[in-house]
């Protein structure tokens, strides 16, 4: 039997701007990455998302990003390892404040967008992010791109580390995600996306854009909550995994 966590980026609305159907999607995921106000989210959205996740029995993680609301945290910024460390500590602290009001514990930390991709390739940034997580609490799980500098840093520093794969993204032959600046970065065909997830989880392989087999570790699968058919997509992935004898549960059950 295989086992995998399904995580989703949530709490990314801001003020009057609403993004995603998080109340519905929480029925089908096992871990929620909640935006902490830098790339998206605001205090009221954070509190409400925490409340909904608890009501649905979904484990909660911080989703720290770069301070770029206009770019949704997906534009790279030149930051030092110390700045990365400080940003991550600050945002974990913000979410921990809300968790404390509900008497709930944080399960994990998953960097967002450009910060996630930068730390996946830059060993110094990766170590700074991992150190920030460890210093807040060594019991936290670090979510990072499978087989990346970030997961390597987490393992080196002594954190529980979850290797993450993506349902709706294409891969390069080195195991990195295809840049969103390229037209083929996203998989829009639901059947193709689900087939990719099943192959990654049950075979440990993803087919790259160069048509090569890339070995990959899949502890947790990311689905994006802001897609046009995000809810039905989440439901389909969960049902298909179960029908392929995959146990779907949070990383820390």
UniProtKB/TrEMBL annotation:
Principal EC category: hydrolase
EC numbers, comma separated: 3.5.2.9
Annotated GO MF terms: 5-oxoprolinase (ATP-hydrolyzing) activity
Domain of life: Bacteria
Gene3D superfamilies referenced in this protein's UniProt entry, alphabetically: Glycoside hydrolase/deacetylase (3.20.20.370)
Keyword Cytoplasm on entry: no
Catalytic activity annotation: 5-oxo-L-proline + ATP + 2 H2O = L-glutamate + ADP + phosphate + H(+)
Record's keyword terms, sorted: ATP-binding, Hydrolase, Nucleotide-binding
Family stated for the protein in its record: Belongs to the LamB/PxpA family.
HAMAP family, A to Z: PxpA (MF_00691)
Assembly behavior: Forms a complex composed of PxpA, PxpB and PxpC.
Biological function: Catalyzes the cleavage of 5-oxoproline to form L-glutamate coupled to the hydrolysis of ATP to ADP and inorganic phosphate.
Protein name per Swiss-Prot or TrEMBL: 5-oxoprolinase subunit A
């Amino acid at each position: 039997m295989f086992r995998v966590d399904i995580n989703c980026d949530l709490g990314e609305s801001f003020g009057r701007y609403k993004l995603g159907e998080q109340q519905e999607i929480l029925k089908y995921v096992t871990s929620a990455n909640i935006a902490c106000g830098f790339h998206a989210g605001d205090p009221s959205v954070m509190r409400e998302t925490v409340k909904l996740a608890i009501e649905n029995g979904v484990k909660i993680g911080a989703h720290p990003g770069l301070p770029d609301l206009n770019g949704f945290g997906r534009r790279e910024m030149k930051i030092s390892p110390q700045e990365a460390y400080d940003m991550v500590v600050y945002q974990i602290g913000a979410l921990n404040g809300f968790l404390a009001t509900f008497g709930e514990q944080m399960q994990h930390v998953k960097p967002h967008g450009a910060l996630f991709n930068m730390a996946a390739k830059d060993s110094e940034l990766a170590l700074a992010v991992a150190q920030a997580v460890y210093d807040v609490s060594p019991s936290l799980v670090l979510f990072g791109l499978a087989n990346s500098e970030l997961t390597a840093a987490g393992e080196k520093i002594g954190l529980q580390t979850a290797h993450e794969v993506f349902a709706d993204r294409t891969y390069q032959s080195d195991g990195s995600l295809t840049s969103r600046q390229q037209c083929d970065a996203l998989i829009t065909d639901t059947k193709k996306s689900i087939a990719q997830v099943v192959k990654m989880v049950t075979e440990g392989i993803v087919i790259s854009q160069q048509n090569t087999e890339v070995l990959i570790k899949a502890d947790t699968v990311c689905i994006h909550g802001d897609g046009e058919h995000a809810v039905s997509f989440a439901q389909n992935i969960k049902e298909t995994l179960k029908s392929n004898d995959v146990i779907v549960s949070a990383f820390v059950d």
